[in-house]
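Chain X:
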Amino acid sequence: MAAPESALRQWPEQYRQLLVGAGLDRDTELAAALQPQDTNRPALFSLSQGLHQPDLLRQQVRADYPDAQSGRAVTARLSVLQQDLALNIIAPLTLRLFLHGEAPLPDPDRIFFGALRPGKEQPSRWFQATTSAPVNVSDFVSGVEALVNAWYPVFRKALGVSPGAYWSSIGLGLGAPFSVVWNRGEPAAVCRLAQSWLKQFECDANRFIDWIPAEFSGHSCAIPQRKGCCLQYLLPDGGYCGTCGIYRKERMATLSHQKPSSTPGQWQPNL
């Protein structure tokens, strides 16, 4: 059941109080985390077009990535691109929501899949060229949950992205404000509030992310751990991201004993 609108409005203030308790300023932290998007590049098609014609994404992946020719390799690229969508579209909008108390919704008609730029460092493949009018916290929560629930069947059935990969990536995007202070806020408090925030959304994102107090090299922090893998490790230039579900059991056992992690992909912020 969705939280009352009055309770949802309090989220930016709850987050501000969390940061105050750690000696941090919300506006400074979130403003620094918000990076301008590179929208000065060719757009190949919109997210809306990709959702209605999933073969556009498959064909573009095969054209852009010589390694992605087998079915498994294509699925790995599509899974990572869905993570890219969550981290570079949903995450910045969530940061704006916590900063200003309002934010635009992701708009599939204005979100575009950008062309690769040979010889240059690649930004996110997805960018939102223009944004609609901002909405309040309650409308943001209901609007985003409707969108990610509507996108899921396409990514799952037509593009082969696993439930764990899809929903854990969405959860990382929605948890972006907490990732900003992963190693500076009080870990238990960050984890409690981050998990509670994900529960506001009537979707499966909360089921596939666990926020865990941890200690790395004697330093306390809060980290999100996936229950599904984005498949980044299958890419030629990939590796094990710090939220990786492959090493989840080993990492969870390590963290439960509050020892520094030595597993591949020990967590680093990636937003």
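Chain Y:
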Amino acid sequence: MKKISLVILAVFIGLSAFAQTPTTLRADAIRLASRGYFNKSLDCLRQIAVDSLNAEDMHLYYNNFAQLGQNDSLAYWADEMLKSNPYDAQLIVDYTPRLNNGWQGDMGRKTFPMKVIDICKKYVERDSTHILINRQLAEAYYNIGNYDLALQEFKKLEAVGDTCFGTLYTLGLTYQRMGDNSTAYDYLYRAYDKNDHHPYCLFMLGIVSNRVGLGAEALSYLDEAKKLLMPDRQTLFRLHKELADAFKLKSEPDFRLEELQECMRYAEEKDVNELTFLMGQCYFQLKQRDKAKDCFNRFLEATENKEYNDKIKGMRSDAQRTLRMMMW
């Protein structure tokens, strides 16, 4: 019996060892990532010795961290891969836009255009015809303020037929930065023709239209940009409501009242009664009793026989109690 137990234990250990080989860990990591279990995929990869990792493993590390939004870890693995293969186009096409756009760090948003330039220039030594990589090189030159080199790279892209919105838009920005508003207008208009709902393109097109004397046209672009950049009523309502709640937590009824008044500007009919009650509370805290009474009385009148839920019942009870207190 003891011998059988030892045999079973040995088989179990053998199976466990087999289950943990790099091959099975790698297969598990791929399967888990394909199903959206990115952290579990990473757990499998971490059990593979670093000196046993191949290019596919590193790409999986990179992709998992990309999916999780962990940009510093993503950058670590991208840099490791580029050390061994600086011509990995698939990686560069995904990595360099992230570096150009940047991400939030401890000290604010960081961008890495110089890193993009180093990566892309190295790749271009072997292949100077990759449009997606050349775009990022041009963007990086624009981002560091080297408009001469940015213009040179963007014109190369245009010459080989790359006239997508992004290329035309940044060409327009580049000419505008260089003081050539007329040419900037031409490119920004062509970009606008491809995407007439891009707020910053409309904004910049409005600016250069003004510079070249097209005042009426500028007004139409700027007005449209304003509409697109302005949050909708519901968003503004929620923003000011959250600010009001924050000021309540800070015990600052004067600022809370200001935010509630802003809420009232964007409120739907269903929100008005609650806002009236909350404003009454602020006026009471600020010892403006006449205004507090007015708010509470309007709230009670509007909600009479409309105690639809415990929240309304509770507010009505609070309003009546506060009104009684103010009569003493």
